[in-house]
Specification:
The chain is mainly α. It is built from 13 helices and two strands; from the N terminus they run H-H-H-H-H-H-H-H-E-H-H-E-H-H-H.
Length: 276
């Protein structure tokens, strides 16, 4: 019931989570769910309590970003930074590591440390030429901090990258990684970021990013990387190939390289699905 209600009626979802906790309070996922619904309704103190209980029961740090953000919610950015620094980031899944970086950047902004907020986002996952499920949120966070610093041109670049990544990820949920082409920027209107008339019919809704999604962390880095197809294709489901200035995948990362044919790309995707 929480899963069904959380988007449309978070308060009612929270009531269901409370009911579950009264019946199965020693089950980790129950306490995690209660923490997420508490965060959703703005009860950050309860969210913190439940997140710590979840971490103690499960032994996992996969909700560390929500802990940091909840500390911010109760007005303790210093404590938020301490919580974030206390974990081994190398042991975190990429999606969790990205969410933590965004939360830590927000804590820096709370303290008025805008340059340090930008530094918190300088992580290996910040690659403008590749899009993972976490990329739109990471690119947008960087754009916002650059805007605060008055670096408008750079902010515009990262905003466009966020839009391109979200659009590309929305085309086909099968891909955990894709190549984002510079040429795709031209498919967006400079005024409002909308697709041009040629692309709007095929464009899908961007895949939403959520720090609190308990399932996203487990699946973040499962699939093998996939190449995109040619940039001039109008088929929203077809992959797009890397451009010359995009990061190039070697043979061990993606079969076929930049000149992979549609049949070969399909075969590579099947292999990735089998591995997954």
């Amino acid at each position: 019931m929480v899963a069904q209600l959380i988007d449309d009626d978070p308060a009612r979802a929270h009531e269901h989570a409370l009911a579950a906790s009264r019946r199965a309070g020693r089950v980790a996922v129950v306490r995690e769910t209660l923490a997420i619904t508490a965060y959703g309704i703005g009860d950050f103190a309860l969210a913190l309590r439940e997140l710590r209980t979840y971490r103690r029961i499960s032994g996992n740090d996969d909700q560390i970003a929500l802990i940091v953000d909840s500390e911010r919610g109760v007005g303790r950015p210093d404590r938020a930074l301490e919580e974030g620094r206390a974990v081994d980031r190398a042991a975190l899944a990429p999606a969790v590591r990205v969410a933590l970086a965004i939360a830590m950047s927000g804590a820096r902004l709370d303290r008025g440390e805008t340059e340090l907020a930008l530094g918190e986002l300088e992580i290996p996952e910040l690659d403008p030429d590749r899009a993972f499920e976490w990329s739109p949120a990471l690119f947008s966070a960087r754009a916002a901090v650059l805007e605060d610093l008055g670096r408008t041109e750079e902010a515009t670049f990262w905003t466009q990258r966020a839009e391109v990544a979200a659009s590309a990820l929305g085309h086909d949920g099968e891909f955990d990684e894709i190549i984002v082409e510079d040429g795709m920027i031209e498919a967006f209107d400079d005024n409002d970021g909308a697709h041009t008339a040629d692309d709007s019919a095929d464009a899908a809704e961007p895949q939403p990013a959520s720090e609190a999604d308990a399932d996203a962390d487990a699946d973040a880095d499962v699939a093998e990387p996939q190449l995109l197809a040619d940039a001039d294709t109008s088929d929203a489901d077809a992959p797009n190939a890397a451009v010359p200035n995009a990061a190039v995948l070697d043979a061990s990362d993606a079969p076929g390289g930049d000149d992979t044919s549609p049949d070969e790309a399909s075969s590579a995707s099947d292999v990735a699905e089998s591995d997954r």
